Amino acid sequence: MLKLIAIVGTNSQRSTNRQLLQYMQKHFADKAEIELVEIKDIPVFNKPADKHVPELVSEIAEKIDAADGVIIGTPEYDHSIPAVLMSALAWLSYGIYPLLNKPVMITGASYGTLGSSRAQLQLRQILNSPELKANVMPGSEFLLSHSLQAFDKEGSLIDLDSIEKLDAIFDDFRLFVKITQKLRSAQALLHKEAENFDWENL
Ligand SMILES: Cc1cc2nc3c(=O)[nH]c(=O)nc-3n(C[C@H](O)[C@H](O)[C@H](O)COP(=O)(O)O)c2cc1C
Question: Where does the NADPH-dependent FMN reductase-like domain start and stop, copy by copy (predicted)?
Fold first, then answer.
């Protein structure tokens, strides 16, 4: 069975992005084992000189390493990804490279009509940086707009078109994970490049 880690990109207790990932965990239970990972207790990134990452970050990195792929659910605050998600990604690229070449699917839920599109675009750019270098699925984005009204009391998505779209994108992602597993020729080289990359000696 496909093993996926779903990063809840927020520290808000009441999050429709978390709801969406919980829905995906249940809805796709016969297609993948999805484990939700919280980043809300990770300390704010402070670039320690010894490059020691917090225990919680190491644990998350190990989970990502062991998974076939990663889903990142991002809210949008002021046209950006939440600070807590940026901070977690900074830790996850500080002397460790768990996301390198990892297949990533981005989801986003927002209260308005644009469904976190600007945050998603920004997240794609961030994930392309030298020490993250994830393989983000191209093309398809899952945007859930009007997310406060999107779920029923059981936490299921209400809108059938949204479900159909999520199903199709998730099927593509499962295929993308398989294809990405075959794209390994440059893996060792990219890893070395990331290891040797040093912002202080460019
Ligand atoms: C300070 C602040 C800024 C926000 N900025 C945006 C924004 O730029 N775009 C947007 O769609 N929603 C914005 N929102 C509304 C929701 O927080 C946002 O839609 C979020 O993605 C909802 O996700 P959540 O339910 O997981 O918290 C903002 C809210 C606050 C409090």
Answer: 3-147
Task: Indicate yes or no: pTM above 0.90.
Answer: yes
Tens of pLDDT, residue by residue over 39-85, are: 999 999 999 999 999 999 999 999 999 999 999 999 999 999 999 99
The full 3-state SS of the chain, as one line of letters, equals: CEEEEEEECCCCCCCHHHHHHHHHHHHCCCCEEEEEEECCCCCCCCCCCCCCCCHHHHHHHHHHHHCCEEEEEECCECCECCHHHHHHHHHCCCCCCCCCCCEEEEEEECCCCCCCHHHHHHHHHHHCCCCCCCEECCCCCEEECCHHHCECCCCCECCHHHHHHHHHHHHHHHHHHHHHHHCCCCHHHHHHHHHHCCHHHC
- Whether 147 lines ligand 1, by a CB cut-off of 6 Å, is yes
